[in-house]
Amino acid sequence: MKKKSLEPEQMKKTCEAVRRALLEADSWVILAHERPDGDTIGCGSALARRADILGKSWSWFGPDEVPEAYRFLHGTERYRSRESLSGTDIEGNTAILVLDTSSLDRTVSLGDARRNAVVLNIDHHGDNDLFGDVNLVSSEAPAVAEPLWDIYEHAGWTPDVREAESLYVALVTDTGHFRFEGTSPKTFEIVSKLVKQGVEPQEMFSLLYENRSLSGLQLWGRGFLRAETFSDGEACITWLSQEDFSETKATREDTEHLVNELLHLKGVRLAFLLVEEDDQIRVSVRTKPPHNARDLACIWGGGGHVRAAGCKIEGNLAAALESIRRKVEESHEKRVSSSP
């Protein structure tokens, strides 16, 4: 069940609790989620810059490396990939900022570090576990950059150009350049203010999308060649094997946005990309109304958003492909049979 966003008065109180925790802390530990995207990295970068401005010490971690496309953002050179926090990561009074993360199993393990720090959970997933000491979860926001912007406005922080670029990247990537559901007048109001602070949209687009590698392009070609529709043309699925990566010399981050392309096909409202890993299959799900990507991902223990979600399926590609086709077909038949 989707959690409602905070009411205005509750939002104000929560923003104040976050502001107070950040100002009272001597150091900030910023955490990104696994397979980081532009939203979690953009927001983390903005907070790293804000920490610099406020004279706070900071560190930044995540389970996986920062994708190449986002490494122009402030602070990414200090980002470190690791599985868990250690006691040395917590210096005195520390605030741990967990960004764009619905549950703690999607980020670096806090371990004993949690007992010596305040955990600030800033997110926009409808299935967030509310694991923080302070939970600022705005499920109607199209990107975590929006509730983070609420904190900036409440605190009276005016972003400099580096912060503005980071927040812009978070917004533009998680809204699909403002075409995904949830994009609202507020989104454009924030973008307008960021541009006034010096963001150059053309430059940002070039840095984000006009630096593709030939190996990544060849990897996409394999995915496109395998794409097939089913469920009366309403669903499209494709897959990539470990051999595809080794033969093209592409990386896992080269798969970003590939699944979205499948939704461009006429009549397709469900899209699936399966990527083979060592002992499991990673599945990316994208949908158009009336389908819910999060509900589909939950079938295999995953989660995410209504339009974008993911999960992992144990076993091999053939079994995973069959499982997805079967579940989607069953859902399609039930919907058709129940139609008047």
Task: Please outline what is shown here.
Helix content is 39%, strand content 19%. By secondary structure, the chain is of the alpha/beta class. It has two domains: 8-209, inorganic pyrophosphatase (n-terminal core); 214-338, Diaminopimelate Epimerase, Chain A, domain 1.
Give an account of the 3D structure.
With 340 residues, this protein is an alpha/beta fold. It folds into 2 domains: 8-209, inorganic pyrophosphatase (n-terminal core); 214-338, Roll (Diaminopimelate Epimerase, Chain A, domain 1). It is 39% helix and 19% strand. It has 11 helices and 12 strands. The chain has helices at 8-24, 38-54, 145-155, 161-174, 185-196, 201-209, 214-226, 242-248, 258-262, 293-298, 317-338; strands at residues 27-31, 57-62, 79-81, 94-99, 117-123, 134-137, 228-230, 235-240, 270-276, 280-287, 303-304, 308-314. The strands form 2 sheets. The chain has a 6-stranded parallel sheet with strand order 3-2-1-4-5-6, with helices on one face. A 6-stranded mixed sheet has the order 7-8-9-10-12-11. It is globular and about 55 Å long. The mean pLDDT is 93.
